[in-house]
Design brief:
The structure is a single chain. The protein is an alpha/beta fold. It has one domain: Cytidine Deaminase, domain 2. The chain has a 6-stranded mixed sheet. A 4-stranded mixed sheet has the order 4-3-6-5, with helices on one face. The relative contact order is 0.15.
Length: 297
């Protein structure tokens, strides 16, 4: 059955910055030579198997391994949305996750076409991923500017590892002005894969969703968003030229530099409904600025 949203306007999944398994306190000195303590995130190796075949070893913070594994396979085209996953086994001590399916997959040919991408923390994509762009028809959804301002404010003020430690990316699945599923990881590709896995496992429709990321809008982020069937991609960071080109080809609404009152749409602007009076929108305050806001991470 499709996931049912609870009546309260809160996340279905949200970060837990107090989880001791995800970060630790480290001592150091600051620019004046004074002793300081700061929080840093953990980084762990997770090896993914599809049935009996080793696929990839990913560096991850270690939470939501089931969603990460399934989402990775979906976004690499090694699983189809119609495939049945019969089991997911996680061994935290060994750092292994095994995804089992009821039918044979075509991973052998996919592995031969693996290429490096711009994604940090060992991001990879397979050579035929851009076939997704050809002939895609994304839903004719709308995105209201009032939703954008509400979303960015709530996301930027939600307690997270991003706010506590930096050095991490966040991705959020949203519906209208409501953030639903907020995932974080050392690489933006991992965070988006976790959301793809969550949507697959919980049968969440993509047609009316908005995807928010803290990272820059690269070709990889565009391709994965299109593969997930989400019509709107938003970021507080900037764009790459290839990301913009692919978004235009796919009919994806691409909105970047979304901070305070400001945003810039470089593709799919026809979906935007300008319903917010900017006189009633506050500029981003210093207290709500996220770590890493000084650049396009």
């Amino acid at each position: 059955m499709p996931v049912q949203l609870p009546p309260l306007l809160d996340y279905l999944v949200r970060p837990d910055p107090d989880d001791p398994n995800l970060s630790t306190i480290v001592a150091g000195v600051d620019q004046t030579g004074q002793s300081v303590e700061t929080r840093v995130i953990h980084e762990k190796a997770l090896t993914l198997y599809l049935n009996a075949q080793e696929i990839v070893t990913m560096m991850t913070i270690g939470d939501h391994p089931e969603e990460l594994a399934v989402g990775y396979l979906l976004n690499q085209g090694m699983l189809k949305p119609t495939d049945e996953v019969t089991g997911i086994d996680v061994d935290e001590e060994l750092g292994v996750v095994v995804v089992r399916t009821d039918t044979q997959t075509n991973f052998e040919s996919k592995l031969k076409k693996r290429t490096q991408t711009s994604g940090c923390a060992q991001g990879t994509a397979f050579g035929d991923l851009m076939e997704v762009i050809e002939g895609i028809v994304l839903p004719a959804a709308e995105v209201r500017t009032s939703w954008l301002y509400a979303l960015t404010h709530k996301i930027n003020t939600t307690p997270s590892l991003y706010l506590e430690a930096g050095a991490i990316h966040g991705c959020v699945l949203c519906a209208a002005d409501r953030p639903l599923v907020y995932m974080e990881d050392v690489g933006r590709h991992n965070a988006i894969d976790k959301i793809a896995g969550y949507m697959f496992r919980h049968k969440v429709s993509a047609a009316d969703k908005i995807f928010y990321t803290t990272g820059r809008l690269t070709s990889e982020m565009v391709i994965k968003t299109v593969r997930m069937g989400i019509p709107v991609l938003v970021s507080r960071s900037g764009f790459t030229a290839w990301g913009v080109e692919l978004a235009r080809k796919a009919g994806l609404t691409l909105i970047g530099r979304a901070r305070g009152k400001r945003f810039l749409a470089l593709a799919g602007a026809e979906r935007i409904v300008f319903d917010q009076d900017l006189r009633f929108v506050a500029e981003e305050s210093a207290g709500s600025r996220r770590k890493g806001a000084g650049g396009d991470d």
